[in-house]
Amino acid sequence: MDESFEIKVRNHKTTPVEVRIVEHLYRWTNWEIRKNSAPFQKVDSRTMEFTVQIPPDGEKTVNYQVHYSW
């Protein structure tokens, strides 16, 4: 099974910020990221994390595609 996600994060501050995006892949423990627009870290068997920098009054979009296998 394949799923695609798009996450938009905005910064309304006047200074840059670092944001942690935590995603829980609950469908199955065997998963693989096929496409991603930002580097990620696999935290455990069902959790991944993106860390992104967002400029002042800016926006960052993170896309990824996950493939689950049984």
3D architecture notes:
The strands form two sheets. A three-stranded antiparallel beta sheet has the order 1-6-3, with no helix packed on it. A three-stranded antiparallel beta sheet has the order 2-5-4, with no helix packed on it. It is built from no helices and six strands. By secondary structure, it is mainly β. It is elongated, with a radius of gyration of 13 Å. It has strands spanning 2-10, 17-24, 31-36, 40-44, 47-54, 59-68.
Q: State mean pLDDT (0 to 100 scale).
A: 95
H/E element sequence: EEEEEE
Helix proportion range: under 10%
Biggest beta-sheet profile: 3 strands, antiparallel
The span between the termini is 9 Å
Kindly estimate the percentage of residues that lie in beta strands according to DSSP: over 45%
Write the layout of secondary structure elements.
Blueprint: E1 2-10, E2 17-24, E3 31-36, E4 40-44, E5 47-54, E6 59-68
Antiparallel strand pairs: 1-6, 2-5, 3-6, 4-5
Concise summary:
The chain has 70 residues and is an all-beta fold. The chain is built from no helices and six strands.
Feature tags:
single chain, 70 residues, three-stranded antiparallel β-sheet
